[in-house]
Structures are given as structure tokens and as C-alpha cells.
Amino acid sequence: MKTRTVLSITLIFAIIFGLNGYIGWHGQVFLSNQLGSWFQPGIYWVVFWIIALSYLLAWAGSKVLPAGVSRVLKIIGSYWLAIMQFGFLLLPLTDLIVGVLHLASVSASTYIPLLGWIDTGIIAIVMILGSYNARSPILRKYEITIPKKAGDWEQLRIAVASDIHLGSIVGNRHLRKLVKRVNQLKPDLILLPGDVIDDDIKPFIRYDMGSTMRELQAPLGIYAVLGNHEYIGGHIPAFVEQMDKIGIRVLMDETVHIQERLYIVGRKDKASERTAEGRKGLTALLEGTDLGQPIIVMDHQPYHLDKAEEAGADVMLSGHTHRGQISPNHLITRRLFELDWGYLRKGNLHAIVSSGFGTWGPPIRIGSRSEIIELIIQFKSNERKEE
């Protein structure tokens, strides 16, 4: 296992340095062509590697670097992650065009600046568009019917926001948009299916994001579950404490019976299966519940929809996938999950996977949008009325 871990880490670093070296070389060719004798290769490569490795530097130096320096490095590094992906997709095509032009005896002094500025323009446009998609949340509405009684309730309005990723990149400014849009819905209930924070709890505390989240309002309460990023950060007790302070209950393999009418089941994230404590199966969590009443399950990663349906769940709310966040990554998430985004009816189960409100890594979205879900549930009994 140790050897496999070392080999995996070695491969990851080889890819990171190899890809960045490939991008950096193209940058050198372009800038030396544009700047001529003004171009200084030594200075260029020092600056380039600081930028290219800034996310890793922020992570590795988080305990020794001043908070402001670490945050700046993480922001720069986050945007660079997007540039790395765009470079990986764009530069091989550029090299192919260069090869064709070279065979056609076109002068390098002609095609290097032309292709360089075209690539720069494409990346700039995509970054601007992606920033807009990430920072301009949309409301996505789903209306479903559950053939069960929920006391005297005929309808329930639920606001759902997954993958907020609060931290150094997604902060109070974006969070205030969430609070405003959710409160405008006047929901009966607010559910947060995991990854409320982005690894580290310290930025959440440092920038007093709890005061902003405290403004969320729902008469039936606000409930959250853990996502994989809460486990990556390793600050789960501190996170739960912060949520308790602002009136948000974190369900960790727990079931809540709301006003004797509706069950909310909150599962630990799948990441907990790698820990000593593990997590309970959904069937075990539903022991003692009245399956004749509506059951809503929050499970951050949208695995095993069939098991949720078999256990008797009516609704399963998930996130995690971000719908790939940056296209064409959605082609990968689509293969990894039965449902990587949107709505799926599976037997009696209504499965909904959100693309998330925040972002991981680059605050960029291409082919996906930052979203808040408005879920309206109608309750209708299967029983026939006597004539």
C-alpha cells in the first residue's frame, strides 16, 4: 500500500511538472518573440514556477506563511489550475497547426505571434465567461409528488445548496448571494448536502462567515451533512461546532423526525468508509422509521441510488460532482455516476444531484452553473377515497 501511494504521488507530480513545463515553454517562445532582447528567460522561469506552483505552495506553507500571503497564493493557484486545463486542451492543437504551417514554409515570425495572441484571447474569453458562470448563481426548480401523507401538509418548499466550498476562494461576497436568494424563496426547510467548507475551517472563522450564514431563515430548520472536503480538511469537530453556533444542525448518520410528519436522514460522506468509524448503511439508519411517511436522504456523493430506493427513501439529495465544473470534465463525471447532475426517477425514488453553489479550485465554470435548488414537494396519499 505504501509503495502504491508513493508511486501515485510521484505520477501526480510528474504530470504537474510535465504539463506546466509544456505550457511554460510555449509562453517562453511567445514572449521572446514579442519582447525580443527585453525578454529575460531566468526571471521568466522564476515567476512562472511561482505562479504554476502557487496552489501547492499555499497548501504546503499554510502553517508557516502569513494568512494573507497564503490566501493570495491560493487564489493565484486556483486560477492557474483552470489555465492548466485550457492549455492542455488548446496547445496540442496549436502545435498541430504550427506543424502544418511549418511544412507549408510559412515564416515562424508570422505564425508565432498570430497563434500566440489567438490562444491568449481564447483563454481570456473562457476565463471571463467561466467567472461569470461561477459568480452568477441561477435558481433551478424541481416539482415532485410523493404518494404519502405528511400530516396536514399538502406541500413543502425546500431550498437546497450543495458544495458551497466556503474558504479562501469562495467567501462572504458569494455567500451573501446565497443568503439573499434563498431567503427570497421563503422556504419551509433548508438543506445543505455537504462540502459547506473548502477543506480548511480557519478562513470560515477568520472572515466571520458564520455571521452571514446565520441570516438564512426557514421555519422548519436548516440541516447539513458532511462532504468529502470536510474530511479532507480534518476539522470536523470544529466545523460542527461552528454550525451549531449559527443554528445549523449537521447530521452524521442521523435521522430527524420533523413535526412528526417528515424524516430527514443525513449520512456521513462516503469518505468516512476509509476511517475506523465508517458509516452506517441506509437501511440501518431507517430502522424504526415509519416508511409510510416521506423520507428525504442527504448523501453528498450520489452513489447507490438503487440502495436508497430499496431502503424506502423518497428523495435523495446529493452534490459532489459539480457537473465536472469545467467542460469537458462532465464527460468523466457522467461515466462515474449514474446521475452526475439533474433529476432522475428511479422506482419510487426522486434523485436530485446539484452542480453546487460554490467551486473547488478555480472559481470558473464552463458547461455548468452555480445553482440553488428550489424543491417543491406535493404530498398525496395513495389511499382511494370512499365514494
UniProtKB/TrEMBL annotation:
Keywords assigned: Membrane, Transmembrane, Transmembrane helix
Domain of life where this protein originates: Bacteria
Q: Where are the transmembrane segments?
A: 5-23, 43-60, 72-91, 111-132
Q: Which InterPro entries match?
A: Calcineurin-like_PHP, Metallo-depent_PP-like, Metallophosphoesterase_sf
Q: Calcineurin-like phosphoesterase domain: which residues? A: 156-323
User: One Pfam family, short name please?
Assistant: Metallophos
Query: Which PANTHER family does the UniProt record give?
Result: TRANSMEMBRANE PROTEIN WITH METALLOPHOSPHOESTERASE DOMAIN, TRANSMEMBRANE PROTEIN WITH METALLOPHOSPHOESTERASE DOMAIN-RELATED
Descriptive protein name: MPP superfamily phosphohydrolase
Name the lineage. Bacteria, Bacillati, Bacillota, Bacilli, Bacillales
